[in-house]
Design brief:
about 50% helix; mainly alpha; elongated; 3 strands
Length: about 120
Amino acid sequence: MVEIFRLPICPYCHAITRYSDVKRKTHNKIIKCHHCNKNYRVSYLKGRIILISIVSIALIVINIFLLKQTTGVTIPFLAIGDAVVVLVAVFLFPFTVRYEELPRKLQKLSLEEANKKLPNS
């Protein structure tokens, strides 16, 4: 599980990408490494599904526990607590991004050309 939540690294030179760069470039299909200048594919769906699943299950369990075991817990209190947990999860999104190698012919192309030639999967 520790492997899931870490900042992504370049699959070629293993350079770690900064949090702000990951956050800014996550939605690009292909990006270029700041260190070795090779192109790689951005993948984030699997990590986000895992993170959202963990947060959802945790919120359900915590809310049910608080409503059953304690008195005086109000719905606005639960809503604020849930909002804080969801906000923390959003800040963890860049830690769920992974970079994958591209076929050799797409590694040295410009980003625009590589995005055009990349098959949609």
